[in-house]
Specification:
Length: 324
């Protein structure tokens, strides 16, 4: 059934990601161009529960295309994760006349959007997370910027560990999975990249490899480790005790989430934000905007959430031959 949408809401939720602002800008301006009224919701679902909303116009999104973070602010709401929370959030949407909602974020945000859809609000999910871990989309807004930030940091680290002939264990983000870590490892030429999806043995896969490359003259070693693998300090201690090589830990942490979005993130976010509004204009709800087979398209939200994504472990076989 087609629903006429006049007022749309927009929010960002979960971990912020560079490029979210570009998506907000695109959605707001596309909606206004199409004659819709736009309500900005601050701090994601938490702000929706508190009715922390404001009217947006085309100037509300000026000068944000190139800025990291999210001007709408973001949060992770525990209260929203309950039947009562979803009911209240849907009620607040109705009070504000919001019949269509654009929800920008990762898997938690999409699950929230699905719950709101079930409560009668037409929602469109837009993938925004540095983790690139959404099965429905080959790309998530923020991933490219985070990847480039991490690579830039590790390039800097390389200079100092090379000078001291040390080993460096670099812990990178990615939540419970290794999509971001794998790409970082390839792009910065890590000797070994550890991800939660891999059954690894520290002696065989890390220590032996360090000693093997040391015999060929290598004198500095970069180990990239996804945060989902556990304690990077324990791994560093283990390497140092087994090899005698001075080993240091660097946790890149939230620095990976900030910064000026890359051109790729701005372009993807702009296309995805505009697409979300086109869907609402057509009266479609319960959809997620995705990037699949090289194009921005959309999928049914329930189906999208049921999909699973697996890491291509064969890439590690490739890097074993190259990163020596
Ligand atoms: O989902 C994005 C992300 O940055 C993950 O990579 C990380 O595990 C998590 O958010 C950190 O969340 P918080 O900002 O709540 O510490």
């Amino acid at each position: 059934m087609s629903v006429e949408i006049k007022t749309i809401g927009i929010l960002t939720s979960g971990g912020d990601a560079p490029g979210m602002n570009a998506a907000v800008r695109a959605a707001v301006r596309t909606a206004i161009y199409k004659g819709m009224r736009v309500i900005g919701i601050r701090r994601g679902y938490a702000g929706l529960l508190d009715n922390d909303v404001f009217e947006m116009n085309i100037r509300s999104v000026s000068e944000i295309l190139h800025r990291g973070g999210t001007v709408l602010y973001t949060a992770r709401s525990h209260e929203f994760n309950s039947e009562e929370g979803v009911r209240k959030a849907a009620e607040n949407c109705r009070k504000n006349g919001i019949t269509g909602l654009v929800c920008i974020g990762g898997d938690g945000t999409f699950r929230g959007a699905r719950d709101l859809c079930r409560a009668g609000i037409s929602c469109i999910g837009v993938p925004g997370t540095i983790d690139n871990d959404l099965a429905c989309s080959d790309y998530t807004i923020g991933y490219d910027t985070a990847l480039n930030t991490a690579v830039e940091m590790i390039d800097k680290l390389r200079d100092t560990i090379q000078s001291h002939t040390r080993c460096s264990v670099v812990e990178v983000m990615g939540h419970k999975v290794g999509f971001l870590a794998q790409s970082i490892g390839i792009a910065c030429g890590a000797l070994v990249t550890l991800v939660p999806e891999m059954n690894y043995d520290l002696d065989r896969d890390v220590v032996d490899r360090i000693l093997y490359t040391q015999r060929s003259g290598k004198n500095h070693f970069i180990i990239v480790m996804a945060e989902g693998c556990g304690s990077s300090s324990d791994v560093a201690d283990f390497i140092q005790s087994r090899t005698g090589i001075e080993t240091r830990v660097t946790v890149l942490g939230h620095v990976q989430r900030g910064g000026i979005p890359t051109a790729r993130d701005r372009i993807m976010a702009t296309e995805m934000g505009a697409r979300a509004i086109e869907l609402l204009e057509k009266g479609k709800g319960s959809r997620v905007v995705v990037f699949r087979n090289g194009e921005v398209t959309d999928l049914d939200m329930e189906k999208a959430l049921a999909m699973e994504k697996t890491l291509d472990l064969s890439k590690f076989e490739m890097t074993k031959m190259i990163s020596l």
